[in-house]
Amino acid sequence: MAELIRRADARWLNVVDSVVLFWLVLWTAVGCWVGFSLWHLAGVGDTLVQSGQTLDTAGQALQRVGDIPLIGQWPDRLGAEVRATAVEIIGRGRETALYGQRLAVLLGLTVGLVAIVPILAPYLPARITRRREVAAIRRMAGDPSRRPLLDFYLAHRAMGSMPLHRLERMAGDAGALSEERLAEAELGRLGLNR
Length: 194
What we know:
Elements: H1 2-7, H2 10-41, H3 43-65, H4 74-141, H5 147-161, H6 164-171, H7 179-189
Helix pairs in contact: 2-4, 3-4, 5-7
């Protein structure tokens, strides 16, 4: 990947940058959507908690009915059982909400990162290296005393990165290439000019 980016034409590299950026935005959005959807589903736990609280209220009412003389103790026992079940439902609802939210975050990140990291891991270091190299060439180009060294470097780089048919076209009928022409061609490939 690094060698492909190093040899890439500036226009082609802009297209690749755009595709990589689109890929990153797309999978970040998909990861967020998955996480948000699962977070929303975790709301089932909140519904369970509310149902448990309602059931607890019903159990309290049954226990109060048991306090009425002549009715007996069975409503009080039934109310206690209902309340015990309500406490269990409330606990399970809170667990469901908590685990659902954790799962939403974990899966949202996983979906996004599984698609992004394999592309970004080799691309980003190679792209940073290319950017640093272009910046170094710009600095050297601004210093007239370093110009001969830069032309030599760029000419040799052009020989290694340009396809043969392009070098042949540059040489023309004379069949000779000057270091300066090669350096100009390499600068053009990098998206720079003198």
